[in-house]
Amino acid sequence: MSIVRTLVSCAVNFEWALHQLDVKNAFLHGDLHEEVYMEIPPGFGNSQTDGKVCKLKKSLYGLNQSPRAWFDRFKRVVVGMGYSQCNGDHTVFYMDRQKHITILAVYVDDIVITGDDAKEIKDLKERLGNAFEVKDLGPLRYFLGVEIARSSKGVILTQRKYVLDLLNETGMLGCRPIASPMDRNHKISALSGDPVNKERYQRLVGRLIYLCHTRPDISYEVSVVSRYMHDPRVGHMEAVYRILRYLKGSLGKGLWFKLNQHLDVEGYCDADWASNIDDRRSTSGYCIFVGGNLVSWRSKKQDVVARSTVEAEYRAMAVSMSEMIWMRSLLSELRVLRNNTMVLHCDNKFAINIANNPVQHERTKHIEIDRFFMKEKIDGGMLKLGYVKSDEQLADCLTKGLGPSDGVVICSKMGMVDIFSPS
């Protein structure tokens, strides 16, 4: 989804159109390169077919080979039209012709097309229609459960219908809303009460994880409750229901992509030191902006225990930098990158000083690989580190629970709005 959000940001800043296509019976278009046999379907067998099987000539739904066979066929068709497959993400194809760009992104049977070459986009639709059974859905409005609304001021991505269906399924449609998704000083641990229904808990958390595609305001909270999928307890389920109560009060919140007339890559990173009660590991969080619009974010518990706040912040910086480098390489390959230098904001001066200091210290031995990785990118001019005050740190909501007022301020700065709220 970060690819889709990046393409939407490019389309808004360059004022490109966004088109959507749907491939009917996509998996049936795949070509099998190995011998696959299936049992004769019930009702088609007789005494002459006893003990015999069918040999498949084309892929079918349900085969493990079907997704790979379909994408292989699709790739050969698109590359045959003169498009190049993107190395940053193999589901993205592009054509750069006479200073005009056309970009195609595919997810199973859903296709998004954008670019500034209107004639090529029209020809591409016709050629895809000749190769497959394709339905032109017009402007991009609904993609993978995400509702997309566009106006002259920009584009907004929401999952309001998804939230309503989730609340209706859980019986929380009439619940009393709450102002924050998690208590600021929560003490959730592995032994928070008695065990609960594991399948129900996993289903609820799984649906919340998918909701995070347009809701960075609940990413940290969902990250916390997803740590206990193997052994959910009463306290964990209560935390899930609190997230649902928060969603009830913010049904229409979504990401707002506006025209900023640039495509600079900018990031914010933060870490909450030793925040996990069970194993004292820290939580990393980052958010990446492309063209002034939020396209990528993450909240994740670190893999090892950090012995200091500097170490935790430094590890968060390294993870954020990896994401920004990938985003930069993707934009560069698509020929849309305008500024080669990225800026990463951090609220820890000690971590910034270590990254900019050419002299090694004893305190950096345990993060030596991350240190050399960052030093190489900074010395090469690819990245600049900037200091930001803690109250202006946008990644703060991805590392800890915030109060209602702080959450509203950060959500507003991240570009989250509610177009369904009464004026």
Give a quick precis of the structure.
With 423 residues, the chain is α+β, with helices and mostly antiparallel strands. The chain has helices at residues 2-14, 66-80, 118-131, 160-170, 198-211, 219-225, 234-248, 309-333, 349-356, 368-379, 404-414; strands at 17-23, 37-39, 53-55, 84-85, 92-97, 100-107, 110-115, 134-139, 142-143, 146-151, 154-158, 253-258, 265-272, 283-290, 293-301, 342-346, 383-387, 416-418.
Write the layout of secondary structure elements.
Blueprint: H1 2-14, E1 17-23, E2 37-39, E3 53-55, H2 66-80, E4 84-85, E5 92-97, E6 100-107, E7 110-115, H3 118-131, E8 134-139, E9 142-143, E10 146-151, E11 154-158, H4 160-170, H5 198-211, H6 219-225, H7 234-248, E12 253-258, E13 265-272, E14 283-290, E15 293-301, H8 309-333, E16 342-346, H9 349-356, H10 368-379, E17 383-387, H11 404-414, E18 416-418
Percent of residues in helical segments? Answer: 25-40%
The level 1 CATH classification of the largest domain is Alpha Beta
What would the average pLDDT be, to the nearest integer? Answer: 88
Q: Rg, please?
A: 24 Å
Q: Report the CATH architecture of the largest domain.
A: 2-Layer Sandwich
- Proportion of β residues? 15-25%
- Order of SSEs, N→C? HEEEHEEEEHEEEEHHHHEEEEHEHHEHE
DSSP helix count? 11
Q: What class would the helix/strand composition place it in?
A: alpha+beta
What would the principal axes of the Cα set say about the shape? globular
Strand order of the largest sheet: 4-5-6-7-1-8
CATH T-level topology of the largest domain = Nucleotidyltransferase, domain 5
Summarize the biggest pleated sheet.
Answer: 6 strands, antiparallel
How many β-strand runs?
A: 18
CATH superfamily of the largest domain: Ribonuclease H-like superfamily/Ribonuclease H
Poorly predicted sequence stretches spanning 5 or more consecutive residues? none
